[in-house]
Every structure is written in structure tokens, then in C-alpha cells.
Amino acid sequence: MIYKYSISISGDDFHPEKIIEEIQGDFVVNTFFNPTDKKLINISEEYGYGSMSFWHPYKNSTEDKIIEYEKSFVEFIDENYTLFVKNGVNEFEIFIEIYFDGGQCNFEIFNKELLKKFGVLGVSLPISVYVLTSEEIQKWEDEIGLVWECSK
């Protein structure tokens, strides 16, 4: 099984460029926009809210690293929560993508201690599940394992 999580934060008065240099931790900024930025599809229309998304530095995880992977999401949000809220963030989401090779799909997202922290912080957890072939899963798991090993 492969896990791919991303964090999304947003707020009507959130201007990501004002805090980008103050963000603690090694998560990677994936995208961001400000409330007054123009939408790409309709150039004359503004977003009306600010948003920023982040990836884990290793992007994905396998089952053998999932506890460490999930813990780092909690630590990142906890470490930056005050900064985010002071700068207009009022929506926190961790988008969860699960990839597996079919059959029964059982998994736990964040243990009860980590979930308790998210409950206090008001973090939502939308989940999507995708089926891949066994070969695709194995190839991807091998690549993810190398990323984790090479990064130590």
C-alpha cells in the first residue's frame, strides 16, 4: 500500500507570501495563491481567499514508514499553527490518497493520539483510494523506499 498525503491551508484574509519565509520545518510548498490573485481559467476573476499546499519532503510513504510519515504531518501543523492562524488561516485539510493493488483495503489513518491533536486544531481529513496493479505498486514502493533510504 502506498500513502500520499498533502496539507492544504486557506483563509479569506490569508496572504501566503507574507509568511513563506517564516514557515518552520522541511515540508515542501507545492502551490499557493493570494485572495487578490487572478484565476488562471478566468483571468478577470480573483480567488477571493488565500491558499497554500505542502508535501512531505519524501512526498509518499509505504506501510513500513507510515507512523513516522504521519507524525511529521502533525508536528509540522503543530509547529506552524500559531503562525498560520495569526495570518488568516481558518481551514486546515490533509488530503489523503491511498494506492493499493485491489482486494480488501484496510488501513488506519493517524493513531488516536495524532487524531486527538487534529481534533483540537480543527483539521479535516478527506480520503481517496485508488487501485493499481501489483506490479505498479511494487515498482512505486521500491522507488519510495530508495527515497527514504537516500535521505538519511
Task: Provide the fold topology.
Elements: E1 2-11, E2 28-33, E3 50-62, H1 66-86, E4 91-100, H2 112-121, E5 123-124, E6 127-131, H3 134-150
Parallel strand pairs: 4-5, 4-6
Antiparallel strand pairs: 1-3, 1-4, 2-3
Helix pairs in contact: 1-2
Instruction: Work out the helicity level.
Output: 25-40%
Please give the domain count.
1
The number of distinct β-strands equals 6
Q: How would you sum up the major sheet?
A: 6 strands, mixed
How much is the radius of gyration in Å? 17 Å
What would the average pLDDT be, to the nearest integer? 91
Offer a few descriptive terms.
152 residues, globular
Question: What would a concise description of this structure say?
Answer:
With 152 residues, the chain is an alpha/beta fold. It is built from 3 helices and 6 strands.
Task: Describe the protein.
The chain has helices at residues 66-86, 112-121, 134-150; strands spanning 2-11, 28-33, 50-62, 91-100, 123-124, 127-131. It is of the alpha/beta class and 152 residues long. Strands 1, 2, 3, 4, 5 and 6 form a 6-stranded mixed sheet that branches. 20% of the residues are buried. The mean pLDDT is 91.
